[in-house]
Each structure stands twice: as structure tokens, then as C-alpha cells.
Amino acid sequence: MREAIRCVRKGEMGCKKASKLFGIPRIVLKRRVMNSKQDATEDRKVLGSKRPVFSPEQERELVEFILKMERMFYGLTITTWHFSEDWYYGFKARHSELSLRKPETTSKARAQGFNIPIVEKFFSMLKSVMDEKNFPPYRVFNVDETGFTTVQTKSSKVLAQRGKKQVGTVTSAELGVLSTAVICDPPLMITFPRKRMKVELTDGAPPGTIFACNGLGWMQLDIFSSWFDHFLSHVKPSDNDPALLILDAHLTHTKNLEVINNARENHVTLLTIPPHCSHKLQALDLSFMSPLNTFYLAAIEKFLRNNPGRVVTQFQVSKLFGEAYLRAATPTTAINGFKKCGLYPLDQDVFDDTDFAPSLPTDRPLNHVESSNDSETLPVDPVPSTSSDTPNDGSIIILPAASSPQPSSFFTVNLEDISLPPKSTIARSQKRKTGSAEILTSSPYKNQLAQERERTKEPYKTKKKNCPQ
Length: 469
Description:
Elements: H1 2-9, H2 15-22, H3 26-34, H4 56-71, H5 85-94, H6 108-113, H7 116-133, E1 140-142, E2 144-148, E3 179-183, E4 188-193, E5 209-214, H8 221-235, E6 243-247, H9 251-254, H10 257-265, E7 268-272, H11 278-281, H12 283-287, H13 289-306, H14 314-328, H15 331-340, H16 353-356, H17 415-419, H18 443-456
Parallel strand pairs: 1-6, 4-5, 6-7
Antiparallel strand pairs: 2-3, 3-4
Helix pairs in contact: 1-2, 13-14
């Protein structure tokens, strides 16, 4: 076969003569002669029936651009540039660093909210309170709320027959009843969606848990105030041993004057995470909530298997939650959560340019009128300017991530000019301003909130918090 291919390629004879001389079917010999793989080299390996459309330099530039777009949350799909499937699979096989993945949805508010000036201001506040009171690690706390239902939102994988189109599992009902848990180590609180409390609802809960009821099962101002009293009874802060509590900017935290006054009187510093940044700066979200939900779903499945014919109701929630909490609440999990988001040990450089890449397409001032479903915060001071190019009109500018000079493109057209998303210029209709991190126990914030309360003379309505199921 090799000799026949050599003779045909050098022109010593045609395919018909070579097939008769070497006893090889002519169609097979012709296919081998025309096979492009015979011309492949180590520098330019050909995978598939066609040669690469681009040069190696152009393909490397294309790979870098694809990865950049993914970091900005505008990843390219197979049909983005209308390449053929034959070229796509060959291109992906030549570059093993690329993989077709299903992305997690991220709201525009989160992509815009987590940016360099906002995060720098948060770490500046955190550093100032740490330097002022020198909190040891066991006096730094993080609190967050999560919702869980009596019906598992997803199920564990089970063994089944290969090729079967649909595999089912039993759930308690079509729709579950939502309850809310306030997570903080050590004090916990569970809120049930009912008007009256029963002692049976507390069976099996983690030690030290307190309980509350309201019509919807959501967090409210008075319920969070009750939890904070529970927090003080466990932590017992004093003038010589103060505590730092880091929490998100939900309405029940930022507008709760009772909690703020109570914290000031009991030597607790309250520091809020900037809005839309909990996925990066909330220690519980990064390390604890995911295993807690996984173990809670496993506890529901275990209950249903061991109790055929029964369903999970509110009276089993505390026991199932307690089983999951004791499995998820480990010291290593807590340490890793605080370390990953740079809260303790304090690390202002924990995030790099790739973490801020999603905010670049929304590069515009942040103190504009904002239409958002997230928590409402008080107006904030502008970030101090450190550059002569920064306007001094009080606006907050998202700075582009620093990067090294890029070489000239190997394409005749710059890929970024034709594929990068345009800057956001959508006007907002609702009168709500974007906030940032705040020290709630500071005198300016507390006085401003008190003045606002006196001016309105109306109780603040509690909004539903978007809790993971």
C-alpha cells in the first residue's frame, strides 16, 4: 500500500495501473492517495477530513479570545460565528483546553455590581475596623439566610437501566412549603410559614436554635431583631472583647434601627457586603450553603425511603435540617469560606482581573437611578479619586482591569471589534440608587437612618429575600 501510494503521488503511474500492479482496489488506493492526513506534520497536526482554516497563530489568538469572552459571561456558542460542525470539532480537538460547558445564569446586577471600586471600598472599610479594634478570628462572624422547602428541588442520581428515557423518584408533593433559616455559627433561627408555634416543630433541631412564625416564612425586621438578641446571648461581646458581624445589604439588616442601636450598645460592629456581591464576598455562600442544601436533600430522600407512604411536612423540617446542618458545619468549611473571599485573614488581593471581567460591559457610573429587585440601601459617599483622569463630580467609575500590552492581531479584523458586547446605556425608570458597603453601627449611618425614620413616620415593609432553595 505504501509503495502504491508513493508511485501514484510521484506520478510514476496512475491509480488504475497501480491497483492492478499491487493488487489493491482502485477506490481504496484513490482514497488513501487523497487523504490529507498523509501530509500532516508535527507542527500542524490535522484532525478531520479538512485542513485548518486558520494558521496556528490565528487559532491561538482565537482560543484566547474565546476564553476572554467566557470570563466576561458572554461565552461563544457553536452557532455564534456560523462555523461548520466539521471545522468546530476539529478545532476543539486541536485545543484540549476548550470544552463545551453549560453555564450558570448570572444576573446583570451581579455582573455590574461586583467591580473594582465597590470591592476596594468594602475592603477599605473592613481593614479600618480590623485595625481599630483588632478582632481575633473567633470574634468575626458572618450571617446569612437561606430558604428550604419540604419538597426536594433536585434529586440524587440513581442506578437505572442504560438507554431508558425517563427515570423517576418520589417527592413529598408537587409544591413544597418554604421555611427560612438564619445561619450563623453558633446561633441559629428557623422561621415557619404559619401563625402559631407548636413545640412539635422544634423536634430534632440543632442545639441552641430558636424559632419564629409568620404568615409567609420570610425574614422580617422584628424576626431579625429577635435573632440578634439571640446572637448577643451566645457571643456576649464586651468593651474588651468586641465582635464583628458581616452581613448582606438586605432590607431587614440595613433599615433595622433597633438592631443598629442594640449593636452599638453591646460592642458589635455591623459591616454590610455591597449589594449583588454576596456570590463573591459572603463566606457562607461560598463554602457552607451548597453542602447544607445537598445534605438536606439527602435527608429528605432518606426519610421518604424509610417511611413509605408518608410525606415531609413542617413537623419534620427541624429534624431533617438538623441532620444536614451537623454534617455540613465543620471547622474546615468555615475557615475555607472566610479565606476564599478574603475576609479573614484579610486579603485585599484575593480577586484578580478575571473576577472583575464581567463588569466591563457595564462600564458606566454606578450612582445612577437603578431598577433593581435587590435590597435598598442608603446613598453612599463616592469613592475617592486616585487618578487625574477620574471625574470629580461624585460619580463612581468602573475602572478597566489592568492588562499587559497585547500583540497585534493575526486577523485582518480585530475580533474584539466584532464580538465584544456594547456598553450598557439602558435608562432606568424606578427611583432607586445603587449602594455599596456600609458600617451600619457608624454614627453617620445611624443618624441618617434615624432622621429618615422620623421623616417618614411609617414602618418599613419587609420584602421577600431571594433565598436559594
